[in-house]
Amino acid sequence: MTKKVAIVMGSQSDKETMAKCEQALAYFGIQNETFIYSAHRTPDETATFAKNAEQNGFGVIIAGAGLAAHLPGVIAAHTTLPVIGVPLNASPVGGVDSLYSIVQMPSGVPVACVGIDNAKNAGILAAQILALSNDALKDKLTQFKKEGSKLK
C-alpha cells in the first residue's frame, strides 16, 4: 500500500498554486490530503501535525510557502519524513525570498526544494520518493517518463 502525501500551505490564498500537487499525485493514483497550517500563526498545530504525520499514514510532506517561507523548515524540524518545499511567488521580488528561505536550511534539517510555484514538480518528486518502495508506482513513473509529461 502506498503511503499518502500531505500537502501543506500557509494560507487559503496558496490553494490555486498548490492544487498542481494534487493533480500530479492524482495522475499517479497517490492518495493525498491538504492542510492549512502556518509556521507563524499556528506554530503549535503545525508542530503537532508534523510530529504525527508518519503515524497518520503519510510518507512525504509537500509544504508550500511564500515570503519568509518558514513552513517547510518548521515541518522538517519535527519529522523524519522527507519534506519538499515549494517556494511561492508571494512578494515583490517574485518568490526569490521564498526560494532562498527553503534552500538555505541549516545543517541537519534538510528540505528538498523545487522551483518557484512549481508545485507540479513537487508532486512528481513525492511520487518518485514513494516509488522507492512501490514497484507498481515505479512502473507508472517509468511510463510517464517515456511518454513525456501529460500533466498541465
Notes on the protein architecture:
The protein is built from six helices and five strands; from the N terminus they run βαβαβαβαβαα. By secondary structure, the protein is of the alpha/beta class. It has a single domain (4-74, 82-147), classed as Rossmann fold (3-Layer(aba) Sandwich), CATH 3.40.50. A five-stranded parallel sheet has the order 2-1-3-4-5, sandwiched between helices. Helix 1 (15-27) packs parallel to helix 5 (119-130) and helix 2 packs across helix 3 (71-77). The longest helix is centred in the N-terminal third of the chain and has 13 residues, at 15-27.
Topology:
Blueprint: E1 4-9, H1 15-27, E2 32-36, H2 43-52, E3 58-66, H3 71-77, E4 83-88, H4 96-103, E5 112-113, H5 119-130, H6 135-147
Parallel strand pairs: 1-2, 1-3, 3-4, 4-5
Helix pairs in contact: 1-5, 2-3
Offer a concise description of the structure:
With 152 residues, the protein is of the alpha/beta class.
Task: Identify the CATH class.
Answer: Alpha Beta
- Report the principal-axis shape: globular
CATH topology: Rossmann fold
Order of SSEs: EHEHEHEHEHH
Task: Give the total of beta strands.
Answer: 5
Radius of gyration: 15 Å
Question: Which quaternary structure do these chains form?
Answer: single chain
